[in-house]
Amino acid sequence: MSRRHPNARRATTISAAALTLGSAMLLTACAGGGGGGQSPSAEAVSLTFVAGVKGDPFYITMACGAEQAALAAGVDFDFQAPNTFSPTDQVPIVDAVAAAAPDALLIAPTDAASMFAPIQRVIGAGTKVVLVDTTLEDDEGTSASVKTDDYAGGVEAARELAELTGGSGEVLLINFLPGVSTTDARGKGFVDEAAKLGLTVVAEEFAGTDVEKASQIVDASLQRHPDLAGIFTTTDYGAQGTVTSLRNADALRDVKVVGFDASPVMVEELRAGNIQTIVSQQARTIGELGVEEALKALRGEASSGTLEVPTITITEEDLESPDAQAGLQVESCG
Question: How far apart are CA 104 and CA 127, in angstroms?
Answer without folding.
Answer: 5
